[in-house]
DNA sequence: AAAAATATTTAAGCTTACTTAAAAAATTAA
DNA sequence: TTAATTTTTTAAGTAAGCTTAAATATTTTT
């Protein structure tokens, strides 16, 4: 299957997992940077290949086969992220960009080899779960967005759900990384902002960031 | 530039380096598994991009720009080979196949990062020289084909110039690998065969193999 | 519930990288 | 050196993955 198809299926998968669950062609088109017409076109083709269910004007739904393909690509992406992160001193953003390309040119053999080399990790450097070779995610995600946390409670950062360079630069500067501890000092619910204490620094985050930083309650 | 273009330019480069110096479209077509017509077509396009000089019925000649592109791809290929060889226990043939795909999806940044990680190696696991970031090969190759060696002389294996699975399997089974020592016990010049002693085993090789196994005189 | 705005689909067209078939040139053999 | 063979080129055509423009639905607003 082509790169275009893999990315299309992956986009549907990712969009389906997100808050605003819209997997209509326009949304996928926006994600991929192609025209709406191209997305509709591709949707029809993928339906013929039994990768998605397509009905005019409806949401695009992955079939089992389509989901499997998406998870296979996601697996390769996250394994590359984990490997590049371990070996090299590159920014998370750079690592993401490289993985975005490499994921499509990686045999199952190589993916499995990378996985084994890394000790079959369950999470990538963003805290995102890595599907196993069968395309299953076996971990249970109990994390919540920073925007939904409670004042006075301490959390550990579990996921940074983004691929934006500015965001990652900000995180790197402020110690916001996978595994680190944050104390939520104040929720400004009216203004949708969250004040946290991290590395003895107080910072105030708006919803753009608190909705993509996920945490777990610290035990 | 596209994968097709990178592979085309690479094929001209490799063919130009070889014994039978034929870089006419038919030869490139054979190398790439495409039709002669497609190769002629591509040749014209690349001439417009100033990557090759093209004259009807003549050999295809890389311009400086084309050579630079070819060497950049070759560099990435060989760096991947070196990295995969170091990290994983895969066969040389598998490593070659993976590198063949990854080479086209590797930024210069990642290539340089891999190179640095490996200590800027000058050779890949086949003994092939790795061009530097400027696209220069700074090493001098003094090696000769096993078919041109002298009876009674001891050599070290410097290059295994192939991408054929059977060949690599044979090499792996018989200790024919980069750096190992061989004693040439007999040259059967009439039959174009070479008898060698390696790891205390005597083996007899025909020209198919002795022309692609390169060695240096052992000092 | 009609009007306005937005999204989706259809239609026509483009580029890339191929294909096969036939024509033209170059190479090899007789 | 002519004939036979092989190679290269030209021509016409295809599929993938896009585009823009226009037609048709759907959704939102009033």
UniProtKB/TrEMBL annotation, chains A, B:
| Chain ranges of the HTH dtxR-type domain | 1-63
Keyword terms: DNA-binding, Transcription, Transcription regulation
- Pfam families, per this entry? Fe_dep_repr_C, Fe_dep_repress, FeoA
Q: Where exactly are the transmembrane stretches of this chain?
A: none
Protein origin, superkingdom? Bacteria
PROSITE patterns given for it? HTH_DTXR
Family matches, as Gene3D superfamilies:
2.30.30.90, Winged helix-like DNA-binding domain superfamily/Winged helix DNA-binding domain
Task: Give the protein's biological function.
Answer: In the presence of manganese, represses expression of mntH and mntS. Up-regulates expression of mntP.
The text of the family note is: Belongs to the DtxR/MntR family.
User: What is the protein's name according to its record?
Assistant: Transcriptional regulator MntR
């Amino acid at each position: 299957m082509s790169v275009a198809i893999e990315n299309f299926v992956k986009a549907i998968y990712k969009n389906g997992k997100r808050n605003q669950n819209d997997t209509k062609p326009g949304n996928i088109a926006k994600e991929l940077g192609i025209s709406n017409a191209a997305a509709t076109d591709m949707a029809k083709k993928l339906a013929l290949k039994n990768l998605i269910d397509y009905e005019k004007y409806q949401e695009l739904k992955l079939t089992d086969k389509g989901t499997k393909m998406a998870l296979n690509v996601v697996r390769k992406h996250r394994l590359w992220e984990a490997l590049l992160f371990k070996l090299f001193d590159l920014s998370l953003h750079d690592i993401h960009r490289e993985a975005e390309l490499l994921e499509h040119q990686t045999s199952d053999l190589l993916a499995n080899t990378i996985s084994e080399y890394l000790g079959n990790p369950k999470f990538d450097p963003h805290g995102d779960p890595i599907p196993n070779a069968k395309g299953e995610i076996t971990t249970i995600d109990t994390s919540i967005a920073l925007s939904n946390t409670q004042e006075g409670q301490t959390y550990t950062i579990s996921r940074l759900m983004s691929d934006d360079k500015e965001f990652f630069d900000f995180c790197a500067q402020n110690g916001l990384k996978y595994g680190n501890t944050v104390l939520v000092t104040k929720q400004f619910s009216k203004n949708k902002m969250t004040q946290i204490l991290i590395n003895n620094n107080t910072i105030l985050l708006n919803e753009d960031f608190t909705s993509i930083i996920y945490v777990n309650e610290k035990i």
